[in-house]
Write a structure and sequence with these properties.
The complex is a heterodimer of chains A (90) and B (250). Chain A is mainly β and 90 residues long. Chain A contains one helix and eight strands, in the order βαβββββββ. The chains are: A mainly beta (90), B alpha/beta (250).
């Protein structure tokens, strides 16, 4: 079976549980502004790849890597370089 | 909003399997008693965690199939033969077994009901599960929101919830279901016999001025193709909510 990269693409709904662990908030309705193209998307809409050792989140408009999340050994490693801002309800 | 913006950590909890429903040869629903369950919204999911004897743990997400009104929590799982979790949930699990889960999770792919806009639901395979939660919520809350489900399955035997969908349509309160069978059709089949395409969406979707709320759930290529057609047809992109699932280990 040939696995296409596009088949491995999920969306932000798939990491709702992981983000809830980190932020202790419902995050799929949060709005993220891309540091690359400045477009705003709900976290539920972003592209998510979970087949790597960690989770890679990309902007659905420009493909910019927005987040990288690795969990292991009782620690989280969170790279948010590609996000300019995250807005969510308090 | 308040209900999904619950603060605090999401704890793992145990649900006891109260009932097992074989929906199709490859798909089963697990109906769970979860004593600590705090309620959910139609479209949300749970994470299920399995722990092996040696301590190895793995998690998967499954959409909630039951209506929020139902005191029991149901998930519907498709068995992927090379998967780590689904062959246990579909085939090994017995009534009375305890399953570790946490939820409800998600707030983006959620239908609360209570507004006048018609609903267009497009599902492929087990992507119908969160849409079924919405349909069950609609029915349980006595909503008459005009609702159309376009549902793609491989064959007639693969249609999940077929009898229940037929029964809910027969009530005549504004729900209609259009089936398409992509691989095999029984003799005399009158539904669609191809993958979902633009022509099909144009026949099933609501007229644009009715401004429907649209939910699309299924395998990634299907979701992207359907969402692309809907945007091309002029539907408001912010009214199209999508949820993809893919081969992430089952």
């Amino acid at each position: 079976m040939t696995v296409q990269q596009s088949d491995l693409k999920l969306d932000g709904n798939a990491i709702g549980g992981l983000l809830r662990e980190i932020f202790t908030m419902e995050m799929t309705t949060a709005e993220s502004t891309c540091a690359g193209c400045q477009k705003v998307h709900a976290v539920g809409q972003v592209e998510v790849y979970m087949n790597a050792p960690g989770v890679v989140v990309r902007c659905p408009a420009c493909g910019q890597v927005q987040m990288r999340i690795v969990k292991g050994g009782g620690r989280y490693w969170l790279d948010l370089t590609g996000i300019r801002s995250l807005e969510f309800s308090a | 909003m308040a209900r999904t913006a619950v603060l605090g950590r999401l704890n793992w909890q145990l649900g006891a399997v109260a009932e097992l429903v074989q929906e199709t040869p490859r798909v089963a629903s697990l109906v769970l008693d979860v004593p600590e369950w705090q309620g959910h919204l139609a479209g949300q999911h749970v994470d299920v965690r399995l722990t092996a004897d040696d301590g190895y743990q793995t998690e998967r997400s499954y959409s909630i199939a039951s209506a929020p009104e139902n005191p029991r929590l149901a998930i519907t799982v498709e068995r992927l033969d090379d998967g780590e979790v689904s062959p246990y949930l579909v085939g090994e699990v017995r009534k009375g077994d305890k399953i570790e889960l946490r939820g409800p999770i998600g707030g983006y792919f959620v239908w609360r009901g209570g507004d006048d806009r018609p609903l267009l639901l497009v599902g492929g395979g087990s992507g119908v599960v969160p849409l079924m939660a919405m349909i069950r919520h609609r029915s349980a809350s006595k909503s008459t929101t005009p609702t159309r489900l376009l549902y793609s399955s491989r064959s007639q035997d693969d249609i999940i919830y077929r009898a229940e969908l037929d029964a809910l349509c027969a009530v005549g309160d504004g729900l209609t279901v259009a089936h398409c069978l992509t691989r095999m059709q029984p003799p005399g089949w009158r539904g669609y016999a191809r993958r979902i395409d633009r022509a099909m969406l144009e026949e099933v979707a609501w007229p644009k001025p009715q401004n429907p709320i649209i939910f699309v759930c299924g395998p990634t290529p299907m979701v992207e193709s359907v969402a692309g057609h809907l945007v091309d047809m002029g539907f408001d992109a912010t009214s199209i909510k999508t949820e993809r699932f893919g081969p992430t280990g089952g």
